[in-house]
Amino acid sequence: MFDSKQNEAAPLENAALAERPSHAPPGHPRIPPAKVGVLLANLGTPDNYDYRSMRRYLNEFLSDERVIDYPSWVWQPILQLVVLTKRPFSSGEAYKSIWNHEAGESPLMTITKSQTEKLRTDLQESFGDDVVVDFCMRYGNPSTRSKVRELAEKGCRKILFFPLYPQYSGTTSATACDHFFRALMHEKWQPPVRTITSYFDDPLYVEALAASVERAYAQMDYEPDILVCSYHGVPQRYVNEGDPYHCHCLKTTRLLKEKLGWAHDKITTTFQSRFGPEEWIQPYTVEEVARLAEKGKKKIAVIAPAFSADCIETLEEINEEIRESFEEAGGEKFTYIPCLNDDDAHIRALGEVIRSNLRGWLD
Question: Is 39 in a helix, a strand, or coil?
Fold first, then answer.
């Protein structure tokens, strides 16, 4: 199944153990059998919601020049002396409200672990032990570098890197890939790699998204006046400079609408999580849901197609802050439709995206 010519040093007669190459001199290190690594990547999560954990996580996240591209001499004093003095407390309270206390981790971590395990099972049914599936976080733990090292130690001579962001943005997919490439710089035996940067228009992904909407609507005791597709925002300047994220989001909504067979006025696109003083892509979700309520749209549902797993932006921001904005403006019925998470249809879609990108490596 795996092209053994890519690693003639790896013995195939005993795939369970690392061995020395047959013609190697005494003392040559043992080499594990050649495999292909699939490394999933998500945004990240603090280790806990206490001040120090939150400050460490926020410092790494908000120091990323892909996320905030102001000159460091301008931004770092503001970040270190102002933002990181107060924000770890408020963010910590938000995380505490959604924390998986039983597992001692954030919901994003719990869900990503489950996604990884299900994809590992799915891919091993096709490729057996020739594929190794794991996950990392762009910010926080487990780090990208530590997981690249683990894959190398397990004999992964090729790695497929898969940031779990349906729509491409420099602030998400690109920074994840940047970090992955930096991790490869530390490898003595650097493997060939492939990256997956978006899958927003993959038919199985759109189908899974539509099925989640239909399932949620069937369980409601009312019919929403409109479905709000709320995507994480980016500064308008980033779009003006060439980031395709805005277009990818609009197309996702259009494909979802077409799959559902809905009229144009039954679905809309908005953007959340604005940060800082400059203009971000609009309309802003928190303001738009209030306008909808004021215009008579008293019953709405909200979905977050930019997130592969529920996290602080969905469980706290949408289900609390955005809900509150809608209700204060006169809204009556508000339903948040969960992310696809580890739903079987989502796992099937992700698995097919991975298989497509493994062609030529594993068939």
Answer: strand
